[in-house]
Amino acid sequence: MAWSFPRLSRRSFLKSTGATGAALAISPPLLLNGCATQQEAAGKEEISYTICNFCSSLCNVRVTSKTNNGSKRIVKLDGNPNSTLNRGKMCARGQAGLRQTYDSDRIKTPLIRVEGSKRGEYAFRAASWEEAWEYIARKSKKAAIQPWEWTMVGGWTSCVFYMNWSVPFALANEVPNIVASPMQHCVTTGHLGTDTVTGNFNIHDEILPDYDNAKYILLIGNNASIGAVSTSRMVRFAQGKKNGAKVVAVDPRLSETAAKADEWINIRPGTDLDLCLALLQVMLEEHYYDVTFLKRHTNMPFLVYKDAAGQWQLAKDSEGRPMVKDDGGKQKLEAALAAGDQHLPQVIDITDAPIRILPSYTNDNRQDINGFAFCPTLEVPPGTRSEYTGDHELMTVFQAQREEIKANTPEWAAQTTGIPAETIRRIAREFGTTRPAIVDPGWHGARYGSVMMLRRVQAMMQALNGGIDREGGWIMSGEFHHKAAKQWQAKQTGVGMESQLANMAGLDFANLVIGALSKGENFSHGRPGFTWAYSQQQKEAGKPWVALPVMADEGLKESVEGKLNWKGEPYKTRAMFINAANPVRHYYPDTYWKEMMQHDNMELVVLLDV
Questions:
Q1: pLDDT value at position 60?
Q2: Angstrom distance (rounded) from CA 205 to CA 552
Q3: 293: helix, coil or strand?
């Protein structure tokens, strides 16, 4: 059955607007927000506070309500003036929450499909909650739907508001399948690129650009952060501009964000990665970086080597810990000279300086495993070797990175991006020498295949600038700091963490989610999620497969159509529970979801929405 939606022709639209205009001309005046006029609005006014759930920003809201003739009704929504998040501001969509609250079409009771009708037809009858629960249980039992044959689907609302209930629900019912947004069409691909550099992973705003205190803001492949939905980002961006920050927007079109920038740089679509590689190349070659930050808080001084296959490998000791080379006291000497100390530390030649072993991974490279305080070097001389790596010649990550992108010059990037080489050099110089500066980590983006690497390179640029977890740069969220502190405490005391899913910081969290849900190891039935099963099936067939099979929809259609197997047995998806999501309207492509939900193998579809 074809899915049909009402369409409004131009003629019908003009007729309806004409009729509306005539009706308004003879009716009592109404306020634009749908409230009564001042003559009718007398009554007790009350103020209360809540949060907006119209997007993942979760803005703080001030609610004005009035009581008239014993009936209390919301009359206005505003940003909470006391909020440090959205600072009293609220977007038009959030203010439309008033309309949703009193929408006459809002679903007020469960609706059950009329017997004999087909999915795609709007044929439902009202039911009680008790009847709805009994209906789901009866259909599930009759079709003998197994836990792994259920798939839970959630949009950003589920991800932001209901994750703390959705995951435990899935675990308790042994459901290994959760499709979130789906992840690869949401923010995961871009954020994963960022997070593999910064080491954190929490999807929504774990990195907060400190626009307020930035002096330079660079936006590449990113109109959504400022021009789309995030009021909490917009108010900070506006304050940063008021404080004098220079804003440079790189976009193929004069976007909403570009219109607010000091400089708009036109770029050919899909070539953002080329631009960022050239910016990174200039920053490395022309020394536009924070030396102290790189030595202390990044893996740039870590030693690496190329294996027989030409792949870079981390140089490690027998226990797998990273190694660095002491700078021979050079930085200590520079610090002593700057402070005017009379007793200067001894300096030895870098060639004779020892290789030291660092504790894994502390985000602070100032002490080796024996507690000796030193400073690692960013560059080692040719011929550097270690007893742990045989005859392999070592260099630092810094040197290896510079070697890898030496050909990605501004002239090279100019050919694909359409941006003059001199402009690329100027932007690299401005970003690399202005402190503090931000290259926005991005939100959504154009979803090119290169977006993950684009965000990785941007994170590397931000690290070179020394602007990670620093004022005016990228600030890690309070949640991340709290989790990292718990994780560090557990490591120091040797006492395991309770509820690891809630307390684990960093990319380990993603692997923990994979282990908890996707692999099926925690379930009595032993079935993995369909994405994991599909990934293995593709891998065995020598085809492209999913590297991070968690909460994605890859393989879902195959499981619905009966084209997926696990250990020689069919793996089918036969039921869906969709919470606060509308995949037919919002997920790409819509035909993909229509076909799945109407497929003969799909026994039951349960949707929870307003």
A1: 96
A2: 20
A3: helix
Say which CATH superfamily domain 41-106 falls into.
Answer: ADC-like domains (2.20.25.90)
Q: How many CB atoms lie within 10 A of CB 23?
A: 9
| Angstrom distance (rounded) from CA 592 to CA 580 | 19
Q: Report how far residue 229's alpha carbon sits from residue 224's, in angstroms, rounded to the nearest whole number.
A: 7
Instruction: Report residue 429 as tokens.
Output: 């110089």
Question: pLDDT for 534-582, tens place per residue?
Answer: 999 999 999 998 877 777 888 999 999 999 999 999 999 999 999 988 8
What's the number of CA atoms in the CB half-sphere (13 Å) around residue 211? 21
pLDDT in tens, 389-439: 999 999 999 999 999 999 999 999 999 999 999 999 999 999 999 999 999
Q: In angstroms, what is the C-alpha Rg of the chain?
A: 29
List, in sequence order, the alpha helices (H) in 405-529.
Answer: 410-417, 421-433, 451-464, 478-493, 500-503, 508-513
Q: How many CB atoms lie within 10 A of CB 337?
A: 10
Q: From the CB of residue 249, how many other CB atoms can be counted at a distance below 10 Å?
A: 26
| Strand ranges (E), 216-352 | 216-220, 246-250, 263-265, 303-306, 312-314, 323-325
Q: What is the reported pLDDT for 185?
A: 58
The whole-angstrom separation of Cα 233 and Cα 208 is 9
Asked if pLDDT for residue 20 goes beyond 70, the answer is no
**Are 249 and 439 a contacting pair, CB within 8 Å?**
no
The predicted structure's pLDDT at residue 2: 35
Write the CB contacts of 126 (distance below 8 Å, at least 6 apart in sequence): 109, 110, 111
**How far, in Å, CA of 378 to CA of 368, rounded?**
16
Q: Which helix (H) or strand (E) holds 81?
A: none
What is the Cα–Cα distance from 125 to 43, expressed in whole angstroms? 38
- 284-332 pLDDT, tens digit per residue, is 999 999 999 999 999 999 999 999 999 999 999 999 999 999 988 777 7
Mean of pLDDT over the chain: 86
Sheet arrangement for strand 246-250: 263-265, 246-250, 216-220, 437-439
Q: What is the pLDDT of residue 33?
A: 42
CB-based contacts of 580: which residues, under 8 Å, 6+ apart?
A: 154, 155, 157, 158, 161, 162, 608, 609
Residues paired with 247 in a beta bridge: 217
As a whole number of angstroms, the distance between CA 62 and CA 51 comes to 8
Question: What is the CATH class of 207-476?
Answer: alpha beta
Return the domain boundaries, the chain: 41-106, 143-186+491-608, 207-476
Q: 121 by DSSP, 3-state: which?
A: coil
The angle at the Cα of 552, spanning 548 to 553, to the nearest 5 degrees, equals: 135
pLDDT tens track for 201-255: 765 557 889 999 999 999 998 888 787 768 888 999 999 999 999 999 999 999 9
Q: How many CB atoms lie within 10 A of CB 443?
A: 20
Q: According to the model, what pLDDT value does residue 31 have?
A: 39
Contact between 80 and 88 under an 8 Å Cβ cutoff? The reply is yes
pLDDT beyond 50 at 11: no
Cα gap 517→523, rounded to integer Å: 9
Closest CA to 398 of 380, 416, 420: 380
> What's 555's DSSP letter?
T
